TrEMBL record:
<protein>
    <submittedName>
        <fullName>Capsular biosynthesis protein</fullName>
    </submittedName>
</protein>
<feature type="active site" description="Proton acceptor">
    <location>
        <position position="200"/>
    </location>
</feature>
<dbReference type="GO" id="GO:0008483">
    <property type="term" value="F:transaminase activity"/>
</dbReference>
<feature type="modified residue" description="N6-(pyridoxal phosphate)lysine">
    <location>
        <position position="200"/>
    </location>
</feature>
<dbReference type="InterPro" id="IPR015424">
    <property type="entry name" value="PyrdxlP-dep_Trfase"/>
</dbReference>
<dbReference type="InterPro" id="IPR015421">
    <property type="entry name" value="PyrdxlP-dep_Trfase_major"/>
</dbReference>
<keyword id="KW-0808">Transferase</keyword>
<keyword id="KW-0663">Pyridoxal phosphate</keyword>
<dbReference type="GO" id="GO:0000271">
    <property type="term" value="P:polysaccharide biosynthetic process"/>
</dbReference>
<keyword id="KW-0032">Aminotransferase</keyword>
<comment type="similarity">
    <text>Belongs to the DegT/DnrJ/EryC1 family.</text>
</comment>
<dbReference type="GO" id="GO:0030170">
    <property type="term" value="F:pyridoxal phosphate binding"/>
</dbReference>
<dbReference type="InterPro" id="IPR015422">
    <property type="entry name" value="PyrdxlP-dep_Trfase_small"/>
</dbReference>
<dbReference type="Pfam" id="PF01041">
    <property type="entry name" value="DegT_DnrJ_EryC1"/>
</dbReference>
<dbReference type="InterPro" id="IPR000653">
    <property type="entry name" value="DegT/StrS_aminotransferase"/>
</dbReference>
Length: 410
């Protein structure tokens, strides 16, 4: 008789520490952007060792404001991966620029760095790589690929002029806390966007941040500009306006509304204080999965999270069922669901989605991303899992796999 207790995919890990910090905000008389938001930004700077961090209501807002601060708009092109969540690409559309999608390399979740230079034109302003599953992409190969296309670089704004090649804006929604070649996520790309959505490693319910490294531009001025963008272009935030007699303000430009609140930042601060511990627990779980899956003796490609010179944030457990079809993968998901185990697929390549098909993208042009997707299954990985849960998920996968094979599926 198998245990049918449900194993959910990615529930938030909330302790009394988070509850106390949020209650403290609620009782303080200040619930929107204020002291806790600023403290969260400073602590994220220290944690990532980046030059500055600006918080937003989501990673999507962080990416979009970064593109706007860079002056990216109509007539410009921005390259991102075909193998990602819609947000990496929708932000390019939001600012009126043209998205250019790069296929993955064969057997990889990362863009094909060899193909990348041929996608760069004189209109290319930025590339948005995606640290899928929390594993940072190969930034060395990415920069080398962009260096090969340096002749085409035509900076078209002050901030773009601070760079001597296409700007790298990482979608690091998954990779807070990851390290590659001694560089923490937040310092490898020119700009790095993190997500604190409810299913992410560190959550503020909804929220995001943009981190950047120091460059040939004024970091303070950029920070101020991003804060203006996130709050109507208003020259004083609500907190400074409430000081007695300080009502006067200006609107510098018709801005957006995507600021982080102190209630969210309170949740984030408590999560960040626990985060080293949460990352360590994720590592234990990933390594347990690796052993349990290996001992099933079936043909799996399990994404490596830890290795020579890199440690991921252990965000998603990506597994590919080698030489199996999409139908086999879907059957496996159904059978594991019958065991009470929630799994997922990361990602359906963008050209398979109506929005991007309607923009003219055709999946036939992205064969590697398609192959990567068709037999991929994402297993639950979160800090509420017990060691036994991991063994149960692996055993369920093994049973489902054998049952499908016995039925003649492939
Ligand atoms: C979650 C996610 C986003 C969006 O984050 P939000 O904070 O919800 O805007 C972007 N990219 C990837 C890869 C994600 O997984």
């Amino acid at each position: 008789m198998t245990d049918k207790r449900r194993i959910s995919f990615s529930p938030p890990d909330i302790t009394q520490a988070e509850i106390d910090e949020v209650v403290d905000s609620l009782k303080s008389g200040w619930i929107t952007t204020g002291p806790k938001t600023k403290r969260f930004e400073r602590e994220l700077e220290a944690f990532t060792t980046s030059d500055r961090v600006a918080t937003f209501s989501s990673a999507t807002a962080a990416l979009e404001c970064a593109l706007r601060a860079l002056g990216v708009g109509p007539g410009d092109e921005v390259i991102t991966s075909a193998y990602t969540y819609t947000a990496s690409c929708s932000v390019i559309c939001h600012v009126g620029a043209t998205p250019v999608l790069c296929d993955t390399a064969r057997g990889s979740y990362e863009m094909d760095y060899d193909a990348l230079p041929s996608l760069v034109t004189e209109r290319t302003r930025a590339v948005i790589p995606v640290d899928v599953a929390g594993r940072m992409v190969d930034y060395d190969r990415l920069y080398a690929a962009l260096d090969r296309a340096r002749d085409l670089w035509r900076p078209a704004s002050d901030l773009q002029s601070a760079f001597d090649r296409v700007v790298v804006l990482a979608d690091a929604a998954h990779s807070l806390g990851a390290v590659r070649c001694g560089m923490p996520s937040g310092t490898a790309a020119d700009f790095t966007a993190f997500s604190f959505h409810a299913v992410k490693n560190l959550t503020t319910a909804e929220g995001g941040a943009l981190a950047w490294r120091a460059g040939a531009f004024d970091s303070d001025a950029l920070y101020d500009q991003l804060m203006l963008m996130s709050l109507h272009g208003q020259t004083k935030d609500a907190l400074s306006k409430t000081r007695a007699g300080a009502w006067e303000y200006d609107i510098a430009f018709p801005g957006w509304k995507c600021n982080m609140t102190d209630v969210q930042a309170a949740l984030g601060l408590a999560q960040l204080h626990r985060y080293p511990e949460l990352l360590a627990r994720r590592r234990v779980l990933v390594e347990r999965y690796e052993h349990a899956l290996e001992s099933l003796g079936i043909e799996l490609d399990v994404l490596r999270h830890y290795g020579e010179g890199f440690a991921s944030s252990g965000h998603l457990m990506l597994v590919r069922l080698l030489d199996k079809s999409r139908a086999f993968r879907d059957g496996l998901i159904e059978r594991m669901a019958e065991d009470g185990i929630a799994t997922n697929v990361h990602y359906k390549p963008l050209p398979l989605l109506s929005a991007y098909r309607d923009l003219g993208f055709c999946i036939e042009d992205f064969p590697n991303a398609l192959a990567q997707f068709e037999n991929e299954i994402t297993l639950p990985l979160h800090t509420l899992l017990s060691d036994d849960d991991v063994d149960r998920v692996a055993a369920s996968l093994g049973r489902a796999y054998a049952a499908l094979e016995a039925k003649g599926a492939s």
